[in-house]
């Protein structure tokens, strides 16, 4: 998948980053939860196998619903579409998704949990995780480019 950089504007990145930061603060200040997407998804998936654990899942479902509904709502209101070009096969996308999920399980969190929330809390574990994410990304770009 590639991002159409011709339609990227610094203003949209700034606004998006501010909204992500605001969501992290609201989630931490409200229910006292860390905004890590893999943990949120894992909590919902766990509730599917253990219905007794649904008492703490409403905020997770609300967060995931908003994450999925926001771009759809944006496109409906603005009349714009988001250009996404898939350059990989479905097999590669599934394999990549599996590896990302495995990495978040091994690393004890995902890029949003460590990079946004962990760094802001000065977590040493998150500093190590983000350094690993970034180094791996740079090596991957260098090898794939």
UniProtKB/TrEMBL annotation:
It holds the Pfam family Sulf_transp. Keywords: Cell inner membrane, Cell membrane, Membrane, Transmembrane, Transmembrane helix, Transport. It is a multi-pass membrane protein. Its main location: membrane. InterPro entries: Sulf_transp_TsuA/YedE (IPR007272). It is found in: Cell inner membrane. It comes from the Bacteria. The keyword rRNA-binding does not apply. GO terms for cellular component: plasma membrane. The chain crosses the membrane at residues 6-29, 59-77, 89-106, 127-144. Belongs to the TsuA/YedE (TC 9.B.102) family. This is Uncharacterized protein. It comes from Eilatimonas milleporae.
């Amino acid at each position: 998948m590639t991002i159409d950089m011709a339609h990227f504007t610094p203003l949209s990145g700034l606004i998006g980053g501010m909204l992500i930061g605001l969501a992290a603060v609201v989630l931490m200040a409200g229910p006292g939860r860390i905004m890590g997407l893999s943990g949120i998804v894992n909590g919902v998936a766990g509730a599917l196998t253990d219905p007794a654990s649904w008492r703490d899942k409403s905020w997770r479902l609300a967060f995931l619903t908003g994450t999925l509904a926001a771009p759809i709502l944006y496109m409906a209101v603005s009349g714009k579409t988001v250009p996404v070009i898939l350059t990989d096969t479905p097999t590669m996308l599934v394999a990549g998704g599996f590896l990302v999920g495995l990495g978040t399980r091994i690393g004890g969190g995902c890029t949003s949990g460590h990079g946004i929330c962990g760094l802001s809390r000065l977590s040493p574990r998150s500093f190590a995780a983000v350094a690993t994410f970034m180094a791996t990304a740079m090596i991957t770009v260098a090898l794939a480019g």
